[in-house]
Amino acid sequence: MSPNQFTNRRARRFAPYVLWRALAVLMAVAAVAGLVFGLSDAEPVAAQAPAAAPAPSGPKSSQRAYDAQAAAADPATPGLVQPIPFSHAIHATDFKIDCLYCHTGTDKARMAGVPSVEVCMGCHAQFGGDLAGVQTLTKFWNDKQPIPWDQIYRVPEHVKFRHNRHVAVGVTCQRCHGPIETMDKVQLTKDTIWWPWLLPSTKPEMGWCIDCHRQNQASQDCLTCHY
User: Fold this and answer.
1) pLDDT tens digit sequence for 30-81
2) Is 64:184 a contact under the CB 8 Å cutoff?
3) In the predicted model, is pLDDT for residue 14 greater than 50?
4) SS3 of the chain
5) Distance between CA atoms of residues 122 and 125, nearest Å
6) What is the pLDDT of residues 155-201, one digit of tens each?
């Protein structure tokens, strides 16, 4: 077989492969061109707006509720700014909620304690959802976390003050806590008594407590209040 015959035979053998590869290249070019021209003619897709937050459930809160919340969150209002702007004034005065409803067990226990998140949500799952403070409360509830309130009243560790004994004999909350039902933020209220020897005692100092015990014929034994 001559060299020319061998070359022609080889060319005929590989011709189909060359043809298929050429067709494949042409199809790929056509597809890319169609994609490019198709995109250029397509209408732009508008960016999807973020989903709106669900509207708070329940009726809209009163302006009085908004004002009380603002006062409780205002650093200028006497008292500490708490994690939730809670107003005793609107709860105890406007809505006439009894102290023992929130401070459950104060008439039976040594400590008054603070309401659980569950107690608060018992009411505010139904209304107040448009208030920022209630929204913060709801987040604590959903996260299953306690509210980190800042403590206002604290007695030394060697003092045993029992709320239940004071409640049992009719001592009002206001006697020690001042007009708590009017406060938008809990604060220490000033009350100073003067002993006959012209020495002052300020609430909640020991002398102030002893003076109250004397006025009400309560025990003044050291072990009554000290461990």
Assistant:
1) 554 554 445 445 454 444 444 444 555 568 999 999 999 999 999 999 999 9
2) no
3) no
4) CCHHHHHHHHHHHHHHHHHHHHHHHHHHHHHHHHHHHHHHHCCCCCCCCCCCCCCCCCCCCCHHHHHHHHHHHCCCCCCCCCCCCCCHHHHHHHCCCCHHHHCCCCCCCCCCCCCCHHHHHHHHCCCCCCCHHHHHHHHHHHCCCCCCCCCCCCCCCCECCCHHHHHHCCCCHHHHHCCHHHCCCCCCCCCEEECCCCCEEECCCHHHHHHHHHHCCCCCCHHHHEC
5) 6
6) 899 999 999 999 999 999 999 999 999 999 999 999 999 998 888 99
Tell me how crowded residue 117 is: count the other CB atoms within 10 A of its CB.
20
- With a CB cutoff of 8 Å and minimum separation 6, the contacts of 103 are 112, 113, 114, 115
